[in-house]
Amino acid sequence: MTKSEENTVKILVALKRVSDPDHANKVKVGAGGSTVDTSGLEWKVNPFDEYALEAALRLTEDGKSKTREGEVVVVTLGNKDTETTLRSALATGADRAIRIEAEDEALDGGVVAEALAKVCQEEKPDLVILGKQAVDGDSNQVGQRLAELLDFPMATFAATIVEEASGKLLVGREVDGGVLSLRLTPPCLITVDLRIVAPESVYSKKTERSFRYAEGVRFAPLPAIMKAKKKPLDVKPLAALTAAKPQSTYGKFELPKSRKAGVLVKSAAELVEKLKTEARVL
Question: Fewest beta carbons less than 10 Å away: which of 8, 111, 181, 207?
Answer without folding.
Answer: 181
